[in-house]
Amino acid sequence: MNITKTLNDKELVITLDGRLDTTTAPVLETEMQSACEGVESLVLDLKDLVYISSAGLRVILSTQKRMAKQGSMKIVHVTKAVMDIFTMTGFASIIRIEA
């Protein structure tokens, strides 16, 4: 998985490319912990994410909880495969997802 970060003032855009699974979730979690310092708006761009496992969902949920305390978080450009997983697990109803 590749992680690309773009910081615009207090908004951070993180683009994920590849698979977010048991192997890559710890890398993303570490990246999120440091990258979200002082950020008021977090955008996760998943246009190139082809798969997400329960480990990846856990990282997204913990990041969403953190961002709820310091600002906001949204997910954009979700692929059909990943959206199906969000829908089946109930994440689609608890996390802000935009087209």
From TrEMBL:
Family to which the UniProt record says this protein belongs: Belongs to the anti-sigma-factor antagonist family.
Coiled-coil regions, chain positions: none
PANTHER family for this protein: ANTI-SIGMA FACTOR ANTAGONIST TM_1081-RELATED-RELATED
InterPro entries for the chain: Anti-sigma_ant (IPR003658), STAS_dom (IPR002645), STAS_dom_sf (IPR036513)
STAS domain span: 1-99
Protein's name in the database: Anti-sigma factor antagonist
NCBIfam families: ant_ant_sig
GO molecular function: anti-sigma factor antagonist activity
Species: Oligosphaera ethanolica
